[in-house]
Amino acid sequence: MKRISVVLVWCLLATGCVGGSETDTSGDGETLSVPEGCREVPAAVSSEKVTLLTDLAAAYNDTDPSFDGQCVAITIHRVASGRAAKLLAEGWPTDGSASPPPVLWSPASAAWGALVNYRLELAGQPPIANDYQRIMLTPLVLAMPRPMAEALGWPEADIGWSDILELAQSPEGWGAFGHPEWGPFRLGKTNPNFSTSGLSATIAIYYAATGKTSALTLDDVGSTSVGAFVRGVESATVHYGDTTLTFLENMLKEDLAGRPLSYASAAAVEEVSIIAYNRGDPADTGADDLTPPNVPLVAIYPKEGTVFSDNPAFVLDAAWVDDISRQAAEAFRSFVIDDPEIQARVLEFGFRPGNPAVAVADPISPANGLNPSQPETELQVPEPEVLAALVDGWETYRKTARVIMVIDVSGSMGDLAGEGFSKLDLVKQAVAASLNQFKSEDEVGLWIFSTNLDGDGDYLELVPPAPLAQTEAQIRRSVAGLIADGGTGLYDSTRAAVQAVREGFDQTKINAVILLTDGKCDDNPPGCELDPLLEYLASSERDVVRVFPVAYGADANLAELQSIADATAARLYKATDPLTIEEVFEQVVSNF
Predict the structure, then answer these.
(1) CB 269 within 8 A of CB 540
(2) Number of domains observed in the structure of the chain
(3) Distance CA 296, CA 277 (A)
(4) In terms of domains, do 272 and 323 share one?
């Protein structure tokens, strides 16, 4: 099954696109007041620079700027890159469902602007994202635990994606470098349909396969040898997902538990994320009570070159932008970029200055595992049609999944959720829609659970895992016929599903369970003893089956579901508003 199109390249989830440090997917809203009689000039900004630009906009507004006798005030609105791209291409709403249409737009990467223009061109409309300058930069790197990087010759050796391919395909794994105890090479890499970092990494892998640094073509993307290279690198992937934070948080948890080299050998992240991780704050919360990792991460700058998240500031050529607003946006952009003292502030956030006259300095330094003189080569972002074909190709070459979806059908799933639908009705729609995200080779199965579904058993296998080309019709029929009844036999159902995946474990695939529930375990003990379940889930260091729980509705027990995710180094997803389940389920399936 084929799910990608040029539309999906830029994350058409209602919640937007995330990647690198850009993990906040909503939060539209005015952050600065507009003096009476002044013109508001809105800026839509991705989350990693909202704090900085809010401070700078306040400082700029304090200068009492005016143009043609009209006072103006810049306002900053948090809008994730993918969501803003979607709104700009489809027509920015003015009904209050989003922040005001922006005059200045600053996504994580200029690639989003190219995709907006491409989508508009396809619709016969003029481009609007044309005029931009870079505010701040951060390159895509391979974050690697220091001992592993040193085993590859870091910091002296030139290391790149070709070396990752060699490691991924070596039957000895880390044994080829004298460390068989580290097992196979494991790569953390996000899904390019959802993550800026994942898209940047995929671009870099394709370039590495061709030996080029610019002008990637459709012929390159369709090349058999390029496909083999991409498939080889992807074969080492732990799982995918919608944000690099999943990998960084799990790496830190394993490190603090005394297993610093067990979860992933490397993760494709932005350089700025390493600074936050080594502080013990992978989510970059700015908290004070932090515990740094025992083993820090260092940056591998791929020798073939890499892509920058360049945080551009576009002054849009949109119909709603008049001369006064344009002048104000251009003046604010110059205020941010041209002043060396202001540009030096981006270093406080772990980014490199966009103004080339400002030197790269701390915290981008060897003390943090970084090299300010790297990368030597910046890769050119491909043309939009090539970018779309590239992600299309990735869908073919990505690592295959083996997944059992385990769905709660307890009585509470029959409760009304809004818009005339029960919670189970909405889940049926979400599961059916999610099948379009898998490829035909992915092995997908379906279980349900409540209580006493099969004699005394709380779970029932409806469709065993098999290639989706064989199981899709059966899964759709089974899902359509689900009925809510009974209690919530959560723990024994979870254990049984994981055991089933383990029994058919395939090292070449992503082996996982998706666990959706709207409640907490209410079966009679010992069926609801959490500790034995967690002990079982964490009992295998080699054949790890990751459990991705979905907390559905307000009554789901977040603590127990988080502990289940933690036991398998996976991630908990939350759909506390049942009406969001289709969007959340799409994010869950992004791991495969």
Answers:
(1) no
(2) 3
(3) 8
(4) no
Query: In this structure, are 441 and 576 located in the same domain?
Result: yes
DSSP annotation of 5: -
Beta strand pairing call for 66-67 and 70-78:
antiparallel
pLDDT in tens, 398-428: 999 999 999 999 999 999 998 889 999 999 9
pTM score of the predicted model: 0.88
Write the CA distances from 546 to 200, 401, 458, 503, 514, integer angstroms: 25, 11, 21, 14, 9
Contact by Cβ (8 Å): 337, 354 = yes
pLDDT tens column, 38-58: 999 999 999 889 989 999 999
- Residue-by-residue DSSP string for 62-92: TT--EETTEEEEEEEEE--HHHHHHHHHH--
| DSSP code at position 378 | B
Distance, CA of 259 to chain centre? 24
Question: How confident is the model over 218-261, as pLDDT tens digits?
Answer: 999 999 999 999 999 999 999 998 889 999 999 999 999 999 99
Residues paired with residue 418 on neighbouring β-strands, in sequence order: 421
Helix axis angle for 384-397 and 196-210, nearest 10°, is 90
Query: 3 φ, ψ to 5°?
Result: -110, -15
238, part of any domain: yes
Kindly give, in sequence order, each residue whose CB lies less than 8 Å from that of residue 62, ignoring residues fewer than 6 positions away: none
Residues 412 and 524 in one domain: yes
Q: How many CB atoms lie within 10 A of CB 541?
A: 9
324 and 437 share one domain:
no
Q: Scan for tokens 């779309």, then name that residue.
A: 388
Burial grade of 429 (CB within 10 A; 0-12, 13-18, 19 or more): middle
Q: pLDDT-based confidence at 23, cuts 50/70/90?
A: very low
Q: Which residue has the tokens 């459990």?
A: 547
**163 pLDDT more than 80:** yes
* Residue whose entry in the numeric block shows the structure tokens 């799910």: 3
Over residues 291-342, the pLDDT tens digits come to 999 999 999 999 999 999 999 999 999 999 999 999 999 999 999 999 999 9
C-alpha span between 514 and 549 (Å, rounded): 6
Per-residue pLDDT at 159 = 97
User: What's the first-to-final CA gap in the chain, in angstroms?
Assistant: 13
CB 357 within 8 A of CB 155: no
Which of 450, 455, 433 is closest to 484 using CA atoms?
450
The 3-state DSSP class for residue 589 equals helix
Reported as type and span, the H/E element at residue 224 is helix 224-234
Indicate whether 29 and 169 sit together in one domain.
no
